[in-house]
Structure formats: structure tokens, C-alpha cells
Amino acid sequence: MTSATVDVDSAYPLTSAHVEALDRQGFVRLSNLLSPPTVAHFEPTITERVLALNAMHLPMDERDTYDRAFLQVTNLWQHDDRVRRLVFSPRLARAAAELLGVDAVRLYHDQALYKEPGGGITPWHADQYYWPFASDRTITVWIPLQDTPRELGSLEFARGSHHFSHGRDLPIGDESEQALQEELAARGFEVDSAPYALGDASFHLGWTFHRAGPNRSTTPRRVMTIIYVDADAVVSEPVNDSQRNDLTTWLGGTAVGSVPETELNPVLYRA
């Protein structure tokens, strides 16, 4: 594979329609955000690192709902230079900044999310429950590393739910799945559950409610995610134990009211 076929540097051709879709829906799907050869270049290394670093080894029937949802390995960029190139990609970071409407974004952290064959649902939740930021200018890119039909557990979004405050105090789990499933349906939120072709990806805001179905196939659903935040966003007072943990783990103990200018949170794009 030549370097010309692996592109994580050039600008993605975003349009005003993409930005408007994110503002309206809370998410946007982007066709061919990364070319299939580019995904193929990074997938084996990401998978190798997930298998090496994964700490969950319980049989599926001995896990709780969260641990049945996926194997989760974070900040892979610290363990491999090839993965670092993807996580620090100017193409992805620029798209994140332009979608958010900010001049610059910094890295919060990355997460590989591998849903094993027979893996369960990912319950309804909003990511920002876990994040101690005084800004809603946060966004995650969800990059499948294979074609991802619904049978593998593709990501589903409640369209427009980033404007819905009910359930923002719920951590991911059985309670959030039941309560949000009922409330989102009662309020008439449409669920987008489109499949992903290889190279497609999506961006969603921190307060957008989303879930994924079980993996009904015989192959793992392999996904890489990167979380970005407005480079000028400041840390807020944590309101739950998860935010307190994140403040220490991913933000280097940055003081409340300060910008997290740490080695873990570099600025990845500035206009």
C-alpha cells in the first residue's frame, strides 16, 4: 500500500449541509471520511493493540450489561505510533472543529470499542454525562473498521436529542436503556439506525443520545473513536464520580475553570 492511498491529512469536503445536519440532528454521517485503504492500513494495528491491552476476560454470561456491550481500550495513541497518526489526524480534527464551529479543537481521549460476537446492546446514553467540561462544544468521531450493518451493532441516534435534557443524569446501563427508550419514544424522537459502509463514519455531539444493538454476527464489530473538545473549553466542577475520575485520568487534574493544556490534551487543529 502506497502512502498516497493512506490519507489522514487532507481536508474532508464538508459543506454547510453537513454543519446544519449536526446542529439540527446532533449527529452527522459522512461518506468516505477515510478511504477503505486508509481504514485497512490502521485496522490490524488497532486490533492488535486492543487484544494486547484489553483487561476484560470474563465469559460473556458473567458480565454485566456494560461489559457485555464492548471491549473498551483507551488512549491507544500512547501505545503505538501508527495509531497516534490516526488519532492526531488533521483531516479528522479539522472536520471536528468545522462541525463544532470553533477555531480549534484539542484531544480529550480516544477509545477503541470492540463488540464481540454475541456481545449485547450498548444502552441509550449521552457521553457528556462523563465529561467535566463547562461547554457543550464536544464531539466524537465514530469510525467503523469494517462494513457495519445493524447485525453487527451499528450506532443508532435519537435525532435532535441533544436538545433534550431528560436523562442527562443517567450513566450508561440497564436504567438508562429502559428510561430513555420509553421517554424518547414518548416524545417522538426518530431513531436513525443506518448501516455504515467501510470508510463511512459519524460525528455526534456530547449530549446526543445514542445506543447500539447487539452483535448478532460471528465477527467482532471493530470501531475506533476519537473525542474532541473546543480548545478553549474550561474544566467544570465534577458532578459525579465518573467526572471526577475523568478529571484525574484524562485531564491531568486540571484546575476547575482552567483550560486542560496537558500533554494528554494537545491541540490537534487550529484554523
Automatic annotation (TrEMBL):
Keywords: Dioxygenase, Oxidoreductase
Pfam families recorded: PhyH
Keyword Oxidoreductase: yes
Entry-linked InterPro entries: Phytyl_CoA_dOase-like
GO terms assigned for molecular function: 2-oxoglutarate-dependent dioxygenase activity; iron ion binding
Keyword Ribosomal protein recorded: no
Protein name per the record: Ectoine hydroxylase-related dioxygenase (Phytanoyl-CoA dioxygenase family)
Lineage, uppermost ranks: Bacteria, Bacillati, Actinomycetota, Actinomycetes, Pseudonocardiales
